[in-house]
Design brief:
- Two copies of one chain form a homodimer.
- Chain A has five helices and six strands.
- Chain A is an alpha+beta fold.
- Chain A has two domains: 76 residues, Arc Repressor Mutant, subunit A, CATH 1.10.10.10; 43 residues, Dna Ligase, domain 1 (2-Layer Sandwich).
- In chain A, the strands form two sheets. The first copy, chain A, has a three-stranded antiparallel beta sheet with strand order 1-3-2.
- Strand 6 of chain A pairs antiparallel with strand 6 of chain B.
- Chain A binds a DNA duplex through helix 4.
DNA sequence: CTTATTGCAAAGGTTTTGCATCGCT
DNA sequence: AGCGATGCAAAACCTTTGCAATAAG
C-alpha cells in the first residue's frame, strides 16, 4: 500500500500530515476523526483539526479512503480496499470485516432486484465469539 | 398504526408534538431533523427544536422509530416497520424500500457467517428507472 | 518558483442542557 | 395532583472558512 504513490496519482501532494492520516486510518481499521486527531497530535503536536477535516473530505472524494456509516456509531473512515461487510458485535462494539468475495452477496442482490448495483453497504449486528 | 397506543405501551405520554413527529416521519418515509422541524413549525409554530431532538432520541431508544444511516446523507429517521433494504438512486437520490421478505437475504448471510444475526442494515446504490 | 497545503482563529452550524412552565393521564 | 414533556435560552460541541505562512514538486 504505497500511499505516496497513490496520492501523486490523484494529483495530491504527499505531505507528512496526509501520509500520517492515511497510516493512522490503515492501522485503526475503522477510526473516527477524534481518534485520528489524538493519534496525530502525538506525532505532530502542531497539527490542526482543520487540516484533518479538509484531508478526510478530500481523500474520500478522491476515493483513497471510504467513510463508514453505522447506526449508533460516529462517522468513521477506512482505507479503501475491496468492498466488504461490516460485522459489528452488539456487545463489545468491535467491527469485523468480511470480504464480499467470500460471499457473493452483490450478485445475489443484483439478481433479486434485476438491476445493476453501483455500491453496497452492509452492516450486520451480531454477538461475537468472545462475547458469547 | 396507532401511535397513541404505541407510546402508552412504552410508558410515554402521547403529546401532540410526539404524535405529529411520528406522523411526519411516517409520511416522509425517510426524513431528517431539519425537514421534520420545518413541517412541524407549520402546524405548531411554537415548537422547539430541542423538543424534536429529545423526542427523536427517545423514540429511537424505545424502538418506535429507527435511525437511517446512509453515507453522504444526513441522519434520517423512519417508523420502525419490517426490516428492509434501502435502494438509493445515485442520481436523483430517492430512497426506495425493499422488504426482506421478498429476498431472503438475512438467511443468506446467516448461513454464510454461520451465526445468528440480530440486525442488518443494507444500503444499495443504483440508478433508478426514471434516471436511466 | 509555483501552487497546493497547512495552521490559526473566527464564524457558522448542530446538538445538548437546565430550568421554569405546562399539560397528559 | 403528580410527573413527564415542552419551550426557551445558553452552553457545548462539531465542522467549515478565509487567509497568511509554509513546503512539496
Amino acid at each position: 500500500m504505497d500511499f505516496h504513490k497513490k496520492l501523486r496519482e490523484k494529483g495530491l501532494k504527499a505531505t507528512p500530515q496526509r501520509l500520517l492520516i492515511l497510516n493512522i486510518i490503515k492501522e485503526g481499521g475503522h477510526i473516527d476523526i477524534e481518534d485520528i486527531y489524538n493519534k496525530l497530535k502525538k506525532i505532530i503536536p502542531s497539527i490542526s483539526i482543520a487540516t484533518i477535516y479538509k484531508n478526510l473530505k478530500l481523500l474520500v472524494d478522491k476515493g483513497i479512503i471510504k467513510d463508514v456509516n453505522i447506526s449508533s456509531f460516529k462517522q468513521m473512515y477506512e482505507v479503501n480496499t475491496k468492498e466488504h461487510i461490516h460485522l459489528i458485535c452488539k456487545k463489545c462494539r468491535k467491527i469485523y470485516d468480511l470480504d464480499f468475495g467470500e460471499i457473493d452477496i452483490k450478485n445475489f442482490i443484483e439478481k433479486k432486484i434485476d438491476d445493476k448495483i453501483d455500491k453496497i453497504e452492509i452492516n450486520v449486528f451480531f454477538l461475537c465469539e468472545k462475547c458469547k
